[in-house]
Amino acid sequence: MSDDGSSLTGKVRQLRMRRQQLRAPHAGSPAEALRNLLAVQSQEFPYARWTLAQRCQSLPMVTANDVEQAVADGTILRTHILRPTWHFVHRDDLGWLMGLSADRLHQGNKGMYRQTGLDQETAARSGHVLARAVEGGAHKTREELAAILDAAGLPSKGLAFIYQLMHAEISRILVSGTPVRSAGGALKQTYALFDERVTGTAGGPLTGTDREQALGRLALRYFASRGPATVKDCAAWSGLTMKDVKLGLDVARELSPGTLGSATFDGLEFHLASDDVKGLSGPPQEAALPRVDLIQCYDEYVMGYSQSRHYLGGTAPYFPEDNSPLHVVLVDGRLAGWWRHAFTNGVCELDIRMNRPTTPDEHIALDAEVHRYGSFVGLQTKLV
User: Fold this and answer.
1) pTM above the 0.90 mark?
2) Which of 137, 194, 289, 345 is within CB 3.0–4.6 Å of 175 for a Cys-Cys bond?
3) Count of domains in the chain?
4) What is the DSSP string of 190-259?
5) Inter-residue contact 382 to 349 (CB < 8 Å)
6) Does residue 125 share a domain with residue 56?
7) Distance between CA atoms of 244 and 241, rounded to whole angstroms?
8) Do 184 and 311 reside in the same domain of the chain?
9) DSSP category for residue 28
10) Number of helices (H), then strands (E), in the chain
11) What domain range includes position 318?
12) Residue of 26, 47, 46, 50 lying closest to 36 (CA atoms)
């Protein structure tokens, strides 16, 4: 039987799932889901598509193709931001968010820049070559850019190549382009010119009042979509210092008075939407049928927290052993197992391993989620 809403821990999970739109009210589109979350970790691109789709209204079902189309037209962009890993970001947010993140990302990469020989002169030269290669909408795959860099006498493989591309992303030269299909049908990411996909933004790092305003916007969007959460949670998620997050909270309360509130429990101060504060101390919600969610291991329900991730009810993310599944099964917001997909002869096979036997009601909920995932990928699903 579900414990959702029957304890403080259950209420925290319940509020987080609703604010992250894993529960109603859902988003109307993948772009709306992304705007709510501000940024979504996306190094596992096939699963990151699902992260956005499952937060949308169920009818009509948002499909993988719908998310891919939003990436293709540049509404949703994929780049290195916040922390040195891939994220989805809405094109309306990427300019100011990169202005807030770039200096810290470059600083964090300094050791690898030195190790790979990417000094200022080399970075400037490769940035110029890369910009010329993709300008005018001439989006290029990684392999195509490698060949162009090689012809220019620049590194075209290994870490030296990878860090040239990342440096160009953080420097507002490159950003994701329109994906293309390989001869075998696999989806391949491309790179585009930043200024052709993100318009109306000033270059360079934000300073002074502009930076404070950006800190406020980030804090407002983070805590409104992921609360209850702590300052340390936000700092780990954003790559900012705790001092910056605290300043951002102060600015957020000036930008939007009454939107954010706070509560203290388990010895920590949590920040959340003001409307949710009473929900932490209110009576338990009525018991309902269980709900199962299949989320990717880098879903924001997992990666949106560090200090208070334990409310998930288990250890995630984790490093799989013996070829075991990586992604997360939730029962009423609590970690209950692991999963992954595979495609065989036009069938999507879902390998799902629960931590304990499911109840009859949980099995019905699991079957419903498997069917929903099949609608998302547009294939018949098979539980293995």
Assistant:
1) yes
2) 194
3) 3
4) EEEEHHHHS-S---S---HHHHHHHHHHHHHHHHHHH-SB-HHHHHHHHS--HHHHHHHHHHHHHHSTTS
5) yes
6) yes
7) 5
8) no
9) S
10) 15, 15
11) 285-383
12) 26
